[in-house]
User: Which sequence fits this backbone?
């Protein structure tokens, strides 16, 4: 039986954006079914507008340098990793409550991202062997 | 670098036939633990490893 691996992402900075994609693609490569739930500031990561995240605080100025360094070691940009994750069948969810709070519409979401409530996500997470909180 | 060896490995393995042996070259030190972990998780057999300078070589028989 396929294991389920879940993550909750609550921040929208570059580091919090990349980690679930790196962990998620690894888990998918290990044969797990991966589910990522984006809530609070994380939700903007799965919108078309927020798909160019920056490092937190003052470090935001070094985001470009960071992206280049990651590229040099074979890790793609956020958009490329997102594409990779999609191709590997990773499931992405946007928190319905956050969408209401932040005025994010379903049409603002990246293609393939589903709107989900906390209860529905927790049902999925209850069936998972591992759930990580990225925040 | 982590996690790309594993991601590339999983992709490549899908194109291969059962019984074939895949040679994986990695320059990520993490691969030393990651590749055996991937093999045991996915049921593919790690038949050999070699280390040359900083290059790691893995031989994996596809299940």
Assistant:
């Amino acid at each position: 039986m396929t294991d389920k691996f879940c993550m909750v992402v609550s921040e929208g900075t570059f580091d919090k954006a990349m980690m679930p994609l790196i962990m998620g693609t690894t888990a998918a490569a290990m044969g797990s079914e991966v589910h990522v739930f984006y809530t609070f500031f994380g939700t903007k990561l799965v919108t078309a507008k927020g798909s160019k995240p920056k490092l937190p605080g003052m470090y935001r100025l070094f985001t470009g340098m960071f992206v280049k360094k990651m590229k040099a070691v074979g890790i793609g940009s956020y958009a490329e990793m997102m594409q990779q994750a999609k191709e590997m069948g990773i499931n992405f969810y946007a928190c319905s409550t956050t969408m209401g709070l932040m005025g994010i519409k379903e049409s603002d979401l990246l293609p393939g991202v589903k709107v989900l409530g906390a209860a529905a996500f927790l049902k999925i997470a209850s069936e998972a062997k591992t759930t990580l909180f990225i925040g | 670098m982590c996690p790309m060896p594993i991601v590339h490995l999983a992709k490549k393995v899908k194109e291969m036939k059962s019984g074939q042996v895949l040679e994986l070259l990695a320059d990520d030190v993490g691969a030393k633990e990651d590749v055996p972990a991937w093999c045991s998780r996915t049921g593919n057999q790690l038949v050999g490893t070699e280390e040359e300078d900083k290059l790691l070589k893995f031989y994996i028989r596809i299940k």
